[in-house]
Write a structure and sequence with these properties.
By secondary structure, this protein is an alpha/beta fold. The protein has a single domain (about 1-175), classed as Rossmann fold, CATH 3.40.50.2020. Helices cover about 35% and strands about 25% of the residues. The longest helix is centred in the middle third of the chain and has 13 residues, at about 80-95. The mean pLDDT is about 90.
């Protein structure tokens, strides 16, 4: 079972090129999408709490034992939005966060520019390992910020259910693209 709280954007209209020759867009975002944009792209940490509040309100009755954030693909960020929001969800819901349940062991880079699903799956093959001791027979909430194609979420979920012997896996993302690839 998996859900996204909102869309990443509702529209994006090309408006021309800036003084440096880069394309510019008038992008409209719903509330959750705007908060996530501010956190990821503007470093606005004040977005963490309202994002966590929205997530906790949505999952309030979900029977989960651990919150498992999907490891970030952009490791160069000083602040990792997925981890920071997951920590706040953990604190507010009173459910332990398990940053070590799933680890990325292969550099995949960012997949946002890989549009072919088979290529995404190939890149993700063997990218993660799971800690069986922490996941076995547990009900897990897998958490991510953005659902684009579902390739990463599917790879992590399969691994948690197989190698991790999880009892159940629920997926929650803050946003999804308007057109999932």
């Amino acid at each position: 079972m998996g859900y996204a709280l909102d869309f990443q954007t509702t529209s994006s209209t090309f408006i021309g090129y800036n003084a440096f020759g880069h394309p510019e867009f008038d992008t409209k975002r719903p509330p959750v999408g705007e908060l996530l944009y501010q956190l990821k792209n503007r470093g606005d940490a004040t977005a963490i709490e309202p994002l966590a509040d929205a997530a906790v309100a949505f999952i309030r009755n979900w029977p989960v034992d651990l919150i498992v954030p999907i490891p970030p693909s952009n490791t160069s960020r000083k602040r990792q939005p997925v981890i920071e929001v997951a920590r706040e969800i953990s604190r507010k819901k009173g459910v332990p966060l398990c940053e070590g349940c799933i680890k990325k062991v292969k550099n995949t880079g960012q997949l946002k520019d890989v549009f072919d699903r088979a290529k995404r799956d190939e890149i993700l093959a063997g990218a993660f390992v799971v800690d069986l001791k922490q996941t076995q027979k547990r009900r897990l909430l897998v958490f991510d910020d953005l659902y684009r194609s579902g390739a990463t979420a599917a790879a992590v979920t399969r691994l948690l259910l197989s190698d991790g012997a999880a009892a159940q896996v629920y997926l929650l993302t803050l946003t999804q693209t308007r057109k999932n690839l």
